[in-house]
# Entry
Amino acid sequence: MAVRLPALARAELDRRFTVHSLADATDAERMLEAVAPHLRAIATGAAILAESPHLQLDVAFLSRFPKLEIIANLGVGYDNIDARHAVSRGIVVTNTPDVLTDETADTAMGLLLNAVREFPAAERYLREGGWTRKPFRLTASLRGRTMGVIGLGRIGKAIARRAEGFGVKIVYHGRSRQADAPYPWFASLVEMAKAVDILMVVTPGGPETRHLVNAQVLDALGPDGVLVNIARGSVVDEAALIKALKERRILAAGLDVFAAEPHVPPQLLALDNAVLLPHVGSGSRHTRDMMNRLVVDNLVSWASGAGPLTPVAETPWPPAEKQG
# Structure
């Protein structure tokens, strides 16, 4: 266990496997020297979900495990793992999709509503006695808006369905057009930003998407535009976003993720047109329990010879030699 996972996962792993917990070792280096050459599986998790400091499973770390067969990650995002390197060595990587889709989509819509209608500010106004003096100010509306989804995967589609229920039109941007997607596709993110007034960021993190939403994209979104990010803080150029919000070059932002979590820039905290959450997209007891169980279920399935339940995109499954 590369990081200390939540209690439910720890208990299930201990019940089913011989577990070596790196985070709990008195001498982590000595433990790795002793057990890494023999281990077949690693259980790990995204930084926000672990109960110990973040650990990057990069080439140098993974090279210490010559017999490694599978990495089971807690979280739908797995930028904490060099998945391409793992796959090049024949190591399967799994994550925990689907079970958190609805919870995260609900959070995204909550952020959007709060950012557009300024509900957090309205509640503060009531609590501070402002309503006894005069009504709260009028706000912007969702009426007549178009949402551009950046990353139309499982969660992106779930958000799109919810937004349609609010009367919001949907378009999307991704690496390629999806044949079965019922929404218009934009090959250019900047062109999509010009055509919409809501940008919903749902794309995976990692080097390929770092600062995908930059100053040019924010300027294209415009002064009535709203940005919602429930993906990874790295996807948005945080400095450019702060500047755009300060200068009112976009209307508002709803953020569940940040570049240097759990540290949030003071400039963001000071803004009245930013709604900020502490990375709670999947943070219900029900959903987190399901995610923890899926980590264990992937490892149990692998150990039984049945293969992984939820391999990541980089992991071809079944392997080519087993497909015929």
About this structure: The chain has a mean pLDDT of 96. The longest helix spans residues 285-303. Strands lie at 41-45, 70-74, 92-94, 146-150, 169-173, 185-186, 198-201, 226-229, 252-255, 274-276.
